[in-house]
């Protein structure tokens, strides 16, 4: 590389350090030292290898940059300033109320694909973006800046194995090996070879460099672009706080502004105004999309016995035929979730993610960045492994659709390790989430299609065993709705149920009516948002609500109902799973948990 180019890159990197120091000083908080170690890496990437049109962030040919070490946000914002898309005034609003420049990046900025800051997530999401690139036959590259501390996260190695196994050559991980974590040295310090051996074992091309040498960085990035049939990891040895003696390679400087910021800026040579011109993508390209057609959902006869998980598989395949943007991901249980129906019909749009639930969710997040409509399925119980990824998807305002099968004690003999009993609470607590729990096959099919247009994280819970079809085919079930299945002016209470307990509630209502105790029944298939109007009417007309759910007492259907009607003052009795189940037949499990028809009858009689 010519000497003038090397000098320019060094000047640009120094400016990024200066602006990182200034931004953190203005905020009185932040991570300038973590930004300073990676400044040379990102200066060379932006100036020489990145292909991105900042004036058209939705250009499908743009490369993708994911800051997995999201705490180094001052570096990212300093790059945006150098690229001319924010000014110095906005840079100094870092971490202030109302600023787009939050402590960790979020898609409030149009150039940020995904929220980061929960370490170990950027690379798994990058895998999903790279998978999308292969599917849509686009030449863009995915660049992920990781910190060495986050390489202790298991999710990193889920991503490494999947990317290596799939040969995602459009993916490059740049690891800032600055040796120091939050409280002291990392496990491997500057031993880049230790990391290289691990990545190489998963089939990655590895490059070890001096992360402060622009020439070596440039060579490594070129090498990544030329590598075929496997992803590349660049392991860059750097010094935390590079350029400022007070903090350079010193413990105790993580996550705080430099004490004497003015002195540090002077030591770095003062402020600069070095612009970076990021090259735009080569030519125009349109992502490949699959064709669609008319939607023909499966239809089930009233009275037929069908598992809602089976209806999910058939409905997803029908939706896939109608909408070419639909993709399906599964965690090696497709024969149980019934995603296998989609896989058989559309193998190119089905992605086996194996027993790696964090990568399963992260891949869905990555694919929706590129405009795909992902449905990701596994057992409801196992989605808890990926809860932080789901939580961060909410922060990212990502639109993903999750399906949890084998929910509740009604799965039967498999026992508590397989029972999703906390999933409704987990999903309800997420920002902007939608939570659905159908009770029969036709309702499931309708809700699967509703989910395609839902923004944010949506979740649908399915049941292992068969349940009777109670709704005729073709009916709509809008998100936020409910169905009043029994109601009369003489009702003395209303039973609110969802999923498998709807059928128990209907049976209980029949028995109570025969005993001269008429009650209403509401199918609250939309657990979030709830149908507040229907619940309020039931609360004010009967004054007594009994909620029944195949879920833990805390945070599920009962709490959703109570939240909606508490100010109206009805009596609310919540029936839910409170003990630790064992192995038993499904009907025995419902009885033991106190949520079957007999338990409902007894609860109504006690209440009245």
Automatic annotation (TrEMBL):
<dbReference type="Pfam" id="PF02780">
    <property type="entry name" value="Transketolase_C"/>
</dbReference>
<feature type="domain" description="Transketolase-like pyrimidine-binding">
    <location>
        <begin position="306"/>
        <end position="469"/>
    </location>
</feature>
<dbReference type="GO" id="GO:0030976">
    <property type="term" value="F:thiamine pyrophosphate binding"/>
</dbReference>
<dbReference type="InterPro" id="IPR020826">
    <property type="entry name" value="Transketolase_BS"/>
</dbReference>
<keyword id="KW-0106">Calcium</keyword>
<keyword id="KW-0786">Thiamine pyrophosphate</keyword>
<dbReference type="InterPro" id="IPR005474">
    <property type="entry name" value="Transketolase_N"/>
</dbReference>
<dbReference type="InterPro" id="IPR051424">
    <property type="entry name" value="Transketolase-like"/>
</dbReference>
<dbReference type="InterPro" id="IPR029061">
    <property type="entry name" value="THDP-binding"/>
</dbReference>
<comment type="subunit">
    <text>Homodimer.</text>
</comment>
<keyword id="KW-0460">Magnesium</keyword>
<keyword id="KW-0808">Transferase</keyword>
<dbReference type="GO" id="GO:0005737">
    <property type="term" value="C:cytoplasm"/>
</dbReference>
<dbReference type="InterPro" id="IPR033248">
    <property type="entry name" value="Transketolase_C"/>
</dbReference>
<dbReference type="GO" id="GO:0004802">
    <property type="term" value="F:transketolase activity"/>
</dbReference>
<comment type="similarity">
    <text>Belongs to the transketolase family.</text>
</comment>
<protein>
    <submittedName>
        <fullName>Transketolase</fullName>
        <ecNumber>2.2.1.1</ecNumber>
    </submittedName>
</protein>
<keyword id="KW-0479">Metal-binding</keyword>
<dbReference type="GO" id="GO:0000287">
    <property type="term" value="F:magnesium ion binding"/>
</dbReference>
<dbReference type="Pfam" id="PF02779">
    <property type="entry name" value="Transket_pyr"/>
</dbReference>
<dbReference type="InterPro" id="IPR005475">
    <property type="entry name" value="Transketolase-like_Pyr-bd"/>
</dbReference>
<dbReference type="Pfam" id="PF00456">
    <property type="entry name" value="Transketolase_N"/>
</dbReference>
<dbReference type="InterPro" id="IPR009014">
    <property type="entry name" value="Transketo_C/PFOR_II"/>
</dbReference>
């Amino acid at each position: 590389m010519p000497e003038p180019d090397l000098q320019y890159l060094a000047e640009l990197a120094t400016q990024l350090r200066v602006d990182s120091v200034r931004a953190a000083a203005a905020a009185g908080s932040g991570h300038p030292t973590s930004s300073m170690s990676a400044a040379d890496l990102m200066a060379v990437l932006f100036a020489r290898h990145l292909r991105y049109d900042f004036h058209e962030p939705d250009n499908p040919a743009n490369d993708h940059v994911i800051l997995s070490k999201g705490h180094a946000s001052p570096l990212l914002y300093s790059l945006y300033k150098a690229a001319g898309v924010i000014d110095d005034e906005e840079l100094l609003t870092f971490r202030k109320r109302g600023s787009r420049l939050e402590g960790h990046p979020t898609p409030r900025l149009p150039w940020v694909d995904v929220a980061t800051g929960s370490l170990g997530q950027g690379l798994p999401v990058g895998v999903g973006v790279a998978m999308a690139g292969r599917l849509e036959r686009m030449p863009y590259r995915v660049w992920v800046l990781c910190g060495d501390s986050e390489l202790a996260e298991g999710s990193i190695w889920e991503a490494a194995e999947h990317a290596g196994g799939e040969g995602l050559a459009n993916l490059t991980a740049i690891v800032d090996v600055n040796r120091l974590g939050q409280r002291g040295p990392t496990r491997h310090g500057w031993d880049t070879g230790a990391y290289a051996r691990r990545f190489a074992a998963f089939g990655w091309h590895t490059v070890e460099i001096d992360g402060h040498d622009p020439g070596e960085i440039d060579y490594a990035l070129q090498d990544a672009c030329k590598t075929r049939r496997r992803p590349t990891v660049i392991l860059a040895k750097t010094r935390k706080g590079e350029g400022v003696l007070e903090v350079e390679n010193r413990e105790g400087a993580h996550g705080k502004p430099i004490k004497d910021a003015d002195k540090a800026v002077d030591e770095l040579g003062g402020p600069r105004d070095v612009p970076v011109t990021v090259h735009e993508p080569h030519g125009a390209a349109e992502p490949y999309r699959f064709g669609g057609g008319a939607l023909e959902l499966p239809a089930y006869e009233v009275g037929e016995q069908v598992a809602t998980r089976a209806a999910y598989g058939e409905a997803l395949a029908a939706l896939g035929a109608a909408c070419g943007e639909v993709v399906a991901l599964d965690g090696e249980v497709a024969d149980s979730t019934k995603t296998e129906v989609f896989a058989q019909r559309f193998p190119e749009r089905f992605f086996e993610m194996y027993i790696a639930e964090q990568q399963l969710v992260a891949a869905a997040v990555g694919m929706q960045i590129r405009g795909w409509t992902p449905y990701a399925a596994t057992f409801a119980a196992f989605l808890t492994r990926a809860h932080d990824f789901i939580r961060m998807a909410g922060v990212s305002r990502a639109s993903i659709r999750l399906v949890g099968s084998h929910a509740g004690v009604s799965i039967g003999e498999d026992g508590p390790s397989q029972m999703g009993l906390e999933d409704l609470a987990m999903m309800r607590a997420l920002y902007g989430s939608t939570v659905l729990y159908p009770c029969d096959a036709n309702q499931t099919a309708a809700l699967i299609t509703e989910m395609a247009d839902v923004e944010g994280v949506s979740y649908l819970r399915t049941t292992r065993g068969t349940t009777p079809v109670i709704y005729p085919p073709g009916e709509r079930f809008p998100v936020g709705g409910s169905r009043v299945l029994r109601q009369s002016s003489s009702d003395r209470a209303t039973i609110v149920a969802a999923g498998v307990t709807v059928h128990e509630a209907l049976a209980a209502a029949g028995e109570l009516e025969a005993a001269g105790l008429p009650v209403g029944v509401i199918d609250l298939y939309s657990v979030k948002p709830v149908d507040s109007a229907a619940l309020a009417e039931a609360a004010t007309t009967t004054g007594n609500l009994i909620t029944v759910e195949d879920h833990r007492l805390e945070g599920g259907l009962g709490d959703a109902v109570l939240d909606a009607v508490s100010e109206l003052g009805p009596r609310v009795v919540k029936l839910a799973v409170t003990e630790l189940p064992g192995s038993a037949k499904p009907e025995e499990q419902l009885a033991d948990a106190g949520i079957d028809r007999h338990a409902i009858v007894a609860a109504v009689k006690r209440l009245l």
